[in-house]
Amino acid sequence: MSDSSYLENLLDGVEVEWKPLGEVVDYEQPTKYLVTSKTYNDEFDLPVLTAGKTFILGYTNETTGICEASNRPVIIFDDFTTANKWVDFDFKVKSSAMKMLKSSDESSYSLKYVYYWLNTLPSGLVDGDHKRQWIGNYSNKTIPIPPLHVQKEIVRILDTFTELTTELTTELTTELTNRKKQYDHYRDRLLSFEDGDVEWKTLGETGEFIRGKRFTKADYVDKGVAVIHYGEIYTHYGVFASSAISQVRPEMASSLRYAEPGDVVMAGVGETVEDVGKAVAWLGQGKVAIHDDSYAFRHSMNPKYLSYYMQTAKFISEKEKHVSQGKMKRLLINGVSKVRIPIPHPESPEKSLAEQERIVAILDKFDTLTHSISEGLPREIELRQKQYAYYRDLLLSFPKPEEKGTTNERQ
């Protein structure tokens, strides 16, 4: 499977026909909810599916009012902006947002082949009704249809490759998870200061909180004032950052509020206790504007030392006492200012900073090994996934109709 010659040998001169997807599969969109979370119980056998990230919402024993159950495999999706999912077990449809595909003719088309081919497509949807998009767009998109035995051989190869890739990725992910737990344990123990010269001071005694000013996504530009949005702190940034991933309109500069180099920026809002109050040390050359749902903590300590401590289980536990509960949790800054942090060698600022720097150097090594996408296991996982996608796409790269001089164009 090193190049297209494999496909040529597999086809053995047989023509590949391109057909509208709507002829190859039957499309169904459920129109009602069947069960609610109140009926879920892990002791039941029948999964309740969603096309979203969760996939299996729960399990139910409800047997009446079934809109659709799979007595044969189906592909489910909510739209083509998310990954298609292969389902070959009995299930219940959760919502009308889920769409399903079945083979229109099992003697001619392998649905699993269609599934693999769909996952080679880039997203082509635009904002709007998904059902209308299917009827008007994807049902007319053409798909290469080799003979059924070729479809099945491609499925066999990709099933095997998928299994091997999944197994390897699972092993690597497990190893990464174990290393992350080991790192968290070591970091928390190193920063517990069970022994040694240390004084515990409140954040309010150590520095001051500066709240940001509001900006919106409509203000984002490719080149302008560097900003940190509160949501980016727990989705894109690690323990520290030296450059911002977002910028807003230059004319907003005077209306914004900034974190200075060395400040620790904290998210003021989040969906979980871990998210709200998540910290990132700002190490950029200049100042960076911060959102009004975030705070810059200004202090005289090592910023990375503070940021590392704010990731510990002890700090998160103390922080939780000062987080408002609800769907969106909010940091109660007056309360958080009373949370204590460890100050090593408090009698000597110079000695204290040296000890903070020593601890940061140790934790930096662990952090790089555990989190960096360019080093260690995360990079290996990414490479395996890219390798799988490359060979899958190569195996499904049939000559397009226009490349063969036909008038039938792939849409």
Automatic annotation (TrEMBL):
<dbReference type="GO" id="GO:0004519">
    <property type="term" value="F:endonuclease activity"/>
</dbReference>
<dbReference type="InterPro" id="IPR044946">
    <property type="entry name" value="Restrct_endonuc_typeI_TRD_sf"/>
</dbReference>
<keyword id="KW-0540">Nuclease</keyword>
<dbReference type="InterPro" id="IPR051212">
    <property type="entry name" value="Type-I_RE_S_subunit"/>
</dbReference>
<dbReference type="Pfam" id="PF01420">
    <property type="entry name" value="Methylase_S"/>
</dbReference>
<dbReference type="GO" id="GO:0016787">
    <property type="term" value="F:hydrolase activity"/>
</dbReference>
<keyword id="KW-0680">Restriction system</keyword>
<feature type="domain" description="Type I restriction modification DNA specificity">
    <location>
        <begin position="15"/>
        <end position="177"/>
    </location>
</feature>
<keyword id="KW-0378">Hydrolase</keyword>
<keyword id="KW-0255">Endonuclease</keyword>
<protein>
    <submittedName>
        <fullName>Restriction endonuclease subunit S</fullName>
        <ecNumber>3.1.21.-</ecNumber>
    </submittedName>
</protein>
<dbReference type="InterPro" id="IPR000055">
    <property type="entry name" value="Restrct_endonuc_typeI_TRD"/>
</dbReference>
<keyword id="KW-0238">DNA-binding</keyword>
<feature type="domain" description="Type I restriction modification DNA specificity">
    <location>
        <begin position="198"/>
        <end position="382"/>
    </location>
</feature>
<comment type="similarity">
    <text>Belongs to the type-I restriction system S methylase family.</text>
</comment>
